Amino acid sequence: MNKQKEIELRRQRRRHHVRNRVRGTAECPRLTVQRSLQHIGVQIVDDMARKTLASASTRDRAVREQVRDGGNKSAAEIIGKIIAEKAKSIGVERVAFDRGHAKYHGRVASLANAAREAGLTF
């Protein structure tokens, strides 16, 4: 099998393994993380209504002015603070953390810790 295809299949398996345990409701929506080499993004999703309530990414114009490089821990911390502020503004204080295929380490952990410090509870 092609090595890249095998890597993608493993990522999908890990993503589905995490997603089977984490569901977002109106009371406790899901905070999902998308991580690439150059950027990081998050969304707050209500799975029951199938709606995205809030999102933040290093690709956003307002964030690009603050962040020099989107693929590091400091950028992840900024995104964590921004998503926590947006969550508070829409009335969400408790979320279920969905790390996707990524390990809870490095940028993902920095994002989660910054969101916790800004007021979100997981």
Q: Mind sketching the topology for me?
A:
Layout: H1 3-21, E1 30-35, E2 40-46, E3 51-57, H2 61-66, H3 73-89, E4 96-98, H4 107-117
Helix pairs in contact: 3-4
User: What's the rounded overall pLDDT mean?
Assistant: 92
Number of strands: 4
H/E topology pattern: HEEEHHEH
What would CATH call the architecture? 2-Layer Sandwich
Name of the top-level CATH class: Alpha Beta
User: Level of helix content?
Assistant: 40-55%
Major sheet size, sense and barrel closure: 4 strands, mixed
User: In order across it, which strands form the biggest sheet?
Assistant: 3-2-1-4
**CATH T-level fold name:** Nucleotidyltransferase, domain 5
Q: How far apart, in Å, are the first and last alpha carbons? A: 39 Å
Strand content: 15-25%
- How many individual domains? 1
Overall, the morphology is globular
Helix/strand structural class: alpha+beta
Please report the number of helical segments: 4
Runs with pLDDT <50, length 5+? none
